[in-house]
Specification:
Distance between the termini: 22 Å
Mean pLDDT: 93
Number of strands: 11
Strand order of the largest sheet: 1-2-3-5-4
Largest sheet: 5 strands, antiparallel
Number of helices: 10
């Protein structure tokens, strides 16, 4: 077998037309992945499960033949994401964990620590469970997607959950928040991708609230291994750290710039994001222009 990937979370081998994946030290992640793959099997956007060894936390999957992503890869990505999200509903309650509801308090403490007035934005930063039962990938990042002659496919569903699919569609707006590389999608491509997603699902909905939810989440400043309950928004006040080619402060400043544009739907939060962005540009001038990268397969 050919070793394709070996990291603290999992090892992956290729064996002819099969992929063998062993999840290391996290039974919950293994269960999530296998459950999600089985729930989404009928959609065709994930590899088929061929065998499972529960004791060894190993799953054998079909090997998908992939091609380099095209320039408009985000359209195929969004269409496949819609199909993944549609694969579950209320009848699947309890089979996967619920999507976490963001806690705005660490973000508000960051605002105060940087000497920025909230301007009453607390009223808009009240989050509840959306009540959705979409099958969420959990980490739909470049690298966890493959492109075939039949469209996009997703792998690595260790963080799968049930919740609101819009929180993953907005990766195209908010810069792929859980991913190694911040990626800003050009507006025409992003709009085409969002239209493809909603056409697949048969409805449309505003996306601003889902973006705001990512702004306040400190866990979206670190890689999955370090999402351990640490208040990373408190850390970023005193220190910065690199995640691939982008730093935590770069990521935060990118998100404030996005949310600052939501003047119609979230006027107080938009104004707060603008003041916060200006303050960060003042005290962290070397981070005033976030690093942006494109798709890496």
């Amino acid at each position: 077998m050919e070793l394709l990937n070996d990291n603290p979370r999992s090892s992956v081998w290729a064996d002819g037309d099969r992929i063998v994946k062993r999840v290391i030290g996290d039974p919950a992640a293994f269960t999530r992945e296998v459950t999600a793959l089985r729930l989404a099997a009928h959609t065709g956007v994930v590899p088929r499960v061929l065998d499972v060894d529960e004791a060894a936390q190993t799953v054998v999957l079909e090997r998908l033949q992939s091609e380099p992503p095209r320039e408009d890869w985000v359209v195929d990505y969004a269409r496949a994401l819609a199909r993944l999200h549609m694969s579950t509903g209320p009848r699947h309650a309890g089979l996967l964990p619920r999507q976490r509801v963001p806690d705005p308090e660490p973000f508000l403490r960051l605002v105060h620590a940087l000497g920025v007035e909230t301007g009453g934005a607390e009223d808009e930063l009240v989050f509840t469970d959306t009540g959705g039962f979409d099958l969420l990938h959990g980490d739909p990042c470049p690298g966890n997607d493959l492109y075939t002659d039949r469209g996009a496919r997703f792998v690595d569903l260790e963080g799968a959950a049930l919740g609101d699919g819009l929180s993953e569609l907005v990766y195209l707006r908010i810069g792929f928040p859980t991913c190694a590389l911040v990626s800003e999608t050009p507006a025409p491509l992003r709009e085409a991708a969002e239209q493809a997603y909603f056409a697949e699902r048969g409805f449309t909905a505003p996306l601003e609230d889902a973006c705001v939810r990512w702004l306040v989440q400190g866990d979206a400043l670190v890689r999955r291994l370090h999402r351990d309950g640490t208040d990373h928004l408190a850390r970023v006040v005193e220190e910065d750290w690199a995640w691939t080619t982008t730093t935590a402060r770069d990521r935060l400043m990118f998100r404030t710039r996005v949310v600052a544009a939501f003047t119609e739907t979230h006027p107080k939060t938009s104004a707060l994001a603008r003041r916060l962005h200006e303050r960060m540009c003042e005290i962290w001038p070397e981070h005033s222009i976030p690093v942006v990268r494109t798709h890496v397969s």
